[in-house]
């Protein structure tokens, strides 16, 4: 009983106050035949032993800081995290608090989330941000729920670009099973070179939302302004799934006219942590705020005339609106949202621009060098940010196995999701990759091409 | 495009400026290394953004800002937090270290499985442990929180009925005391909710349940112990009725802290249940997340679990450990989120916690959680009416109102802050007037509980003699009551930007 | 509370003006909900609806409610200005804050003002 601060004597006194003889007597209501099962679990470890066991497990991994060099992205990115971020996240005042339901004693969390909302609005060029979703994929799925609700359920189709992250597409499909929204456009056999503007052909007066990714899954950067205009002309809305680091460099989805901008905040100072927790950011226009899911922090004053913050428009949410709420979300990613706010505050305007520029420069250097290799080449010609599709002309798993022998994690195998991209890998380069690492990648891949 | 609100002229006092207020152009917090590769021209200007109005601060300014903010928070580390339904137990510090081991922090979710056997072994083991603790046959670790687990569970229930050609089931039975996420999860499925009342002992009303059970019922979502903190006295009958009409039984595992080593929901007949690792297994709440909401299912539902699950893809031999990897259930409902769930923040901490407790330690958790709640209930019941007064589980609900007084649960809650306690949950469950839902958890000692009782009794006295003390509370905290109407009407949802930024950029 | 004598009322707190065909939320109900910050009309002009159909959804600072049609008939007008002035439900529930107007409508299960006032008083206890 490691964390229970009650002595046997105190326990007995408490039992006496309650009027029962033993702890077991408190459970008479449990069906007797199922009461007090013997759990077949390993015996308790002490803290010292637990740390040892967990270190053993952690060390059984090969990590991308000290063991391996990584060129893997595809939705999670290896960025530098300034030390101060985690120092703030380790403050018990932040991480051991609950959702700020009692504003008088939760102003720390509330103001931090308000700042997070502001930072995300600035980054995406949108009016309002909520206090977060679970991740980028669920945020995209919730964007459909928002659009569906905005049209009061009268438009029942969502058009999903085939170049949206395959796992995001899968999550959108899972979420839509229940309400019966038809998902179209997400065909992995579609022509991947066709302009995103062609998606307009799938939009009709039953369409509530079009979802595109920016940069798209292959790293390509498109200006979606024309598409968005045309979708609007047909009465539907557009959600842009954006990479937040790219938003330091490229024009904002807000300025293109997007109605909803979502994405995963992991690149903003959050460790990859084998996939989570990260944070799904969700921003939209002011006129949709009443249908937006999740917590929302607003500015107000307290009875002492001080500027302060509260959870606002709470009647939208599940605890009040119950089955009529747009979403069931309750616990979200508060602490991770705080982490991204600290990261953005630390890097600020210059720092984030530097990170974006380093990603861009290094990825382009890598792309140039890699495309010089015999039999290899870039798959697309559009401008890209820090990820690109490389044709390696042989099975990607073989290539990656070879790279791994040299301590390198190669790119994501695009053939898994796109039949036409068999033998293509998606390579991501961030500020963490040195020129030397890129040169080694090129060298090892040249060897492969000569095998 | 940022819709900057008009600055008002009323002189509000600023306690802590925002990060934007603190910005001064030219300051930097972090400098990145110079580029070491030959330069590539930027893409066409038309694709670029012209202005990036992020704040500019030095590291020390940022750290002090967030330190100031942190001091405005009440937290478990600073005091007693009896917030019902939320299980605000102490979060062991070792978990903060284990989840930050570099091997966990810096692994990419799409790395070859051969390079992440430690992660996969941990997830596999956690799946096995959660099965053993709950009595279920299969576990997915993917859901991100309780509500996400509920949605997963309801999708599984729907898929199960559909797979049997049973298409007409569209109704979910939900008790009136249920948490809002239960009906909201059903709303996200386009199903309808049938509300089942509670009887006078706080159980599911069996007559009403029986009347609602027919062949259009998907199932029932039941929190047990329920949100009154009471274990249903007819749980087996309830499940029999639901199963009898072909429905499935969903367990909201938010209250599992009462049941570890006490009873396994799977044994009693529940078909699906979500765990809240951020309640029962001490994953910190983080001021609103992240949580982690694994779902357990009985044998007939394992084929419907979300993909992927962690499985053994090559058996081990003698000294050789097995090879862990991902497997896809045959009739999977699909993916619930990108990647594999809240591994670092959720699974590693919960794993550490379970490993350090073992079977006896887990049982202790629940026994002491229930002891503490009953102790408080007995000591408070003469002062605060407990409408469903019997041995409770890990929490109980009292009424925050008094005969002939206009003091409300909210006033009592705010007054508790003056005594440096976090208030209980207010106004939930909806079936109790002026509800005060009190969950002490097992990590509070008797002195704290006694001090809380003394204060609660004192507040009841104040309610009679000096009600304004309560109406105006809190008065000793840094911030007072908030103008919530102003917040909702004026709807200022982001900071003023510093002067000189081009808002249309 | 205020319940004009020329109107009819439902148990779920909607009012109906048999003369004009307009319908909205009662003064009693707006007081219970307190400060209303959002309203959405759920029917369109031209819809044929029955009494009891959800016609609007409102949210206050603390609560939310569905508004059901007190009468059946054809919706000939919806109050499009209401969305921008949800607070008018608090300040002028029987005037500015009408929600829909019905034609050829027949009232559903409604009571007169006196009965409604009595009904509200009972609920306050
Ligand atoms: C009874 C109950 N069910 C479900 C939930 C939802 O869990 P989560 O907040 O993790 O989504 C909660 C948490 O607040 C709860 O108390």
How would a crystallographer describe the biggest sheet of chain B?
A: 7 strands, mixed
Backbone shape of chain C? globular
Q: What structural class results from the helix and strand content of chain B?
A: alpha/beta
What is the CATH first-level class name of the largest domain in chain B? Alpha Beta
Beta content of chain B comes to 5-15%
Low-confidence stretches of chain B: 1-7
What is the CATH topology of chain C? Answer: OB fold (Dihydrolipoamide Acetyltransferase, E2P)
Task: Give the oligomeric state of the chains in this entry, treating copies of one chain as homo and distinct chains as hetero.
Answer: heterotrimer
Q: Write out the distinct hetero groups bound to the structure.
A: pyridoxal-5'-phosphate
* Low-pLDDT stretches of chain C: none
Assign an overall shape of chain B.
Answer: globular
The number of helical segments of chain C is 3
CA radius of gyration of chain C is: 13 Å
Distance between the terminal alpha carbons of chain C, to the nearest Å? Answer: 15 Å
The helix/strand order of chain C is: EEEHEEEEEHEH
Please tally the β strands of chain C and state the result: 9
Q: What name is given to the CATH topology of the largest domain in chain B?
A: Aspartate Aminotransferase, domain 2
What is Rg of chain B?
26 Å
The chain-level mean pLDDT of chain C equals: 94
Description:
Chain A is α/β, with parallel strands linked by helices and about 450 residues long. Chain A has helices spanning about 10-20, 45-60, 85-90, 90-95, 105-125, 135-150, 165-180, 225-235, 255, 320, 335-370, 395-405, 435-450, and strands at about 70, 130, 155-160, 180-185, 205-215, 235-240, 260-265, 280-285, 295-300, 305-310, 375-380, 385-390, 410, 410-415, 425-430. Chain A folds into two domains: about 70-80 and about 350-450, Aspartate Aminotransferase, domain 1; about 85-345, Aspartate Aminotransferase, domain 2 (3-Layer(aba) Sandwich). Chain A has 13 helices and 15 strands. By secondary structure, chain B is of the alpha/beta class. Chain B has 14 helices and twelve strands. In chain B, the strands form three sheets. In chain B, strands 1-7-6-5-4-2-3 form a seven-stranded mixed sheet, with helices on both faces. Chain B has a three-stranded antiparallel sheet with strand order 10-12-11, covered by helices on one side. By secondary structure, chain C is of the alpha+beta class. Chain C has one domain (about 10-105): OB fold (Dihydrolipoamide Acetyltransferase, E2P). Chain C has helices at about 25-35, 90, 115-125, and strands at about 10, 15, 20-25, 35-40, 50, 55-60, 65-70, 70-80, 100-105. A six-stranded antiparallel sheet of chain C has the order 1-2-3-9-8-5. A three-stranded antiparallel sheet of chain C has the order 4-6-7. Chain C is globular and about 40 Å long. Chains A and B meet through helix 1, helix 2, helix 3, helix 4 and helix 5 of A and helix 1, helix 2, helix 3, helix 4 and helix 5 of B. The complex binds pyridoxal-5'-phosphate. Pyridoxal-5'-phosphate binds next to helix 5 of chain B.
């Amino acid at each position: 009983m490691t964390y229970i601060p009650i002595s046997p004597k105190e326990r007995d006194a408490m039992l006496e106050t309650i009027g029962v003889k033993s702890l077991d007597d408190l459970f008479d209501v449990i069906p007797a035949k199922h009461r007090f099962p013997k759990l077949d679990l390993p015996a308790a470890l002490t803290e010292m032993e637990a740390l040892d066991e967990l270190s053993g497990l952690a060390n059984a991994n090969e990590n991308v800081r000290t063991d391996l060099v990584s060129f893997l992205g595809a939705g999670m990115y290896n960025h530098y995290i300034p030390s101060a971020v985690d120092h703030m996240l380790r403050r018990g005042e932040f991480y051991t608090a609950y959702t700020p339901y009692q504003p008088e004693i939760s102003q720390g969390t509330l103001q931090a989330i308000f700042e997070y909302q502001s930072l995300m609005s600035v980054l995406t060029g949108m009016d309002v941000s909520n206090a977060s979703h679970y991740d980028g994929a669920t945020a995209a799925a919730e964007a459909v729920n928002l659009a569906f609700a905005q049209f009061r359920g009268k438009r029942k189709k969502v058009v999903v670009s085939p170049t949206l992250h395959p796992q995001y597409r899968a999550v959108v499909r899972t979420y839509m099973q229940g309400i019966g929204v038809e998902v179209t456009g997400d065909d992995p056999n579609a022509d991947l070179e066709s302009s995103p503007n062609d998606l307009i052909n799938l939009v009709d007066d039953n369409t509530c939302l079009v979802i595109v990714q920016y940069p798209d899954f292959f790293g390509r950067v498109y200006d979606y302004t024309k598409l968005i205009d045309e979708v609007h002309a047909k009465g539907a809305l557009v959600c842009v799934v954006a990479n937040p680091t790219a938003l330091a460099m490229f024009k904002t989805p807000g300025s293109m006219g997007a109605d909803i901008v979502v994405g995963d905040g992991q690149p903003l100072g959050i460790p990859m942590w084998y996939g989570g927790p990260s944070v799904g950011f969700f921003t939209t226009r002011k006129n949709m705020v009443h249908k937006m899911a999740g917590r929302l922090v607003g500015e107000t004053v307290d009875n002492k005339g001080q500027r302060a913050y509260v959870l606002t428009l709470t009647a939208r949410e599940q605890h009040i609106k119950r089955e009529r709420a747009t979403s069931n979300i309750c616990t979200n990613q508060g602490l991770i949202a705080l982490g991204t706010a600290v990261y953005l505050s630390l890097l600020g305007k210059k720092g984030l621009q530097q990170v974006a520029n380093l990603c861009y420069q290094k990825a382009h250097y890598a792309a140039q060098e890699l495309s010089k290799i015999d039999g290899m080449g870039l798959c697309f010609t559009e401008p890209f940010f820090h990820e690109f599709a490389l044709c390696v002309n042989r099975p990607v798993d073989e290539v990656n196995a070879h790279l791994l022998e040299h301590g390198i994690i190669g790119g994501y195998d695009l053939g898994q999701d796109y039949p036409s991209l068999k033998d293509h890998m998606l390579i991501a380069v961030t500020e963490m990759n040195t020129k030397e690492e890129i040169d080694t990648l090129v060298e090892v891949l040249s060897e492969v091409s000569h095998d | 495009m940022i819709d900057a609100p008009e600055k008002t002229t009323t002189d509000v006092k600023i306690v802590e400026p925002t990060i934007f207020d603190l910005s001064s152009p030219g300051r930097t917090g972090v400098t990145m290394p110079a580029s070491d590769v030959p330069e590539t021209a930027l893409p066409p200007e038309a694709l670029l953004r012209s202005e990036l109005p992020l704040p500019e601060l030095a590291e020390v300014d940022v750290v002090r800002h967030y330190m100031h903010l942190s001091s405005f928070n009440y937290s478990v580390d600073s005091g007693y937090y009896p917030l019902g339904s939320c299980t605000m137990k102490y979060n062991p510090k070792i978990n903060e270290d284990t989840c930050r081991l570099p091997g966990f922090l810096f692994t990419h979710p799409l790395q070859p499985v051969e390079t992440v056997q430690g992660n996969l072994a941990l997830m596999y083991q956690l799946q096995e442990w959660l099965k053993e603790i709950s009595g279920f046959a299969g576990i997915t670790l993917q859901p991100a929180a309780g509500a996400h687990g509920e949605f997963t569970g309801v999708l599984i229930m729907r898929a199960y009925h559909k797979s049997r050609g049973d298409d007409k089931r569209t109704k979910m039975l939900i008790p009136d005391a249920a948490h809002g996420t239960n009906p909201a999860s059903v709303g996200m499925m386009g199903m309808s909710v049938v509300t089942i009342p509670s009887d006078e002992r706080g159980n599911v009303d069996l007559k009403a349940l029986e009347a609602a059970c027919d062949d259009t019922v998907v199932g029932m979502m039941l929190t047990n112990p329920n949100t009154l903190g009471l274990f249903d006295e007819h749980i087996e009958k309830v499940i029999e009725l639901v199963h009898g009409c072909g429905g499935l039984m969903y367990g909201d595992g938010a209250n599992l802290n009462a049941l570890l080593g006490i009873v396994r929901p799977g044994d009693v007949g529940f078909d699906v249940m979500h765990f809240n690792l951020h309640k029962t297994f001490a994953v910190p709440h983080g001021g609103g997340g992240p949580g982690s909401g694994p779902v357990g299912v009985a044998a007939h539902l394992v084929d419907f679990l979300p993909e992927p699950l962690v499985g053994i893809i090559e058996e081990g031999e003698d000294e050789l450990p097995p090879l862990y990897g991902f497997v896809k259930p045959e009739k999977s409902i699909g993916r619930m989120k990108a990647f594999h769930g809240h591994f670092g923040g959720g699974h590693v901490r919960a794993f550490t916690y379970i490993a350090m407790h073992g079977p006896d330690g887990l049982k202790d958790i629940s026994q002491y959680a229930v002891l503490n709640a009953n102790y408080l209930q007995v000591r408070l019941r003469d002062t605060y009416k407990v409408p469903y007064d019997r041995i409770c589980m890990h929490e109980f609900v009292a009424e925050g109102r008094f005969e002939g007084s206009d003091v409300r649960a909210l006033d009592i809650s705010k007054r508790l802050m003056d005594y440096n306690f976090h208030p209980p949950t207010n106004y939930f469950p909806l079936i109790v007037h002026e509800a005060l839902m009190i969950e002490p958890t097992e990590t509070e000692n008797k002195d704290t509980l006694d001090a809380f009782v003394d204060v609660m009794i004192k507040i009841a006295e104040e309610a009679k003699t000096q009600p304004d003390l309560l109406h105006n509370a809190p008065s000793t905290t840094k911030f007072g009551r908030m103008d919530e109407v102003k917040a909702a009407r004026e709807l200022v949802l982001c900071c003023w930007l510093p002067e000189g930024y081009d808002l249309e950029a | 509370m205020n319940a004009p004598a020329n109107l009819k009322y439902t148990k779920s707190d909607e009012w109906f003006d048999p003369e004009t065909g307009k319908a909205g939320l009662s003064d009693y109900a707006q007081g219970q909900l307190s400060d209303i910050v959002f309203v959405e009309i759920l029917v369109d002009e031209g819809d044929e609806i029955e009494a009891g159909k959800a016609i609007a959804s409102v949210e206050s600072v603390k609560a939310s409610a569905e508004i059901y049609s007190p009468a059946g008939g054809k919706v000939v007008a919806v109050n499009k200005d209401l969305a921008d002035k949800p607070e008018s439900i608090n300040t002028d529930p029987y005037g500015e804050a009408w929600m829909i107007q019905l034609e050829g409508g027949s009232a559903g299960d409604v009571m007169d003002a006196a009965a409604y006032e009595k009904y509200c008083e009972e609920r306050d206890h």
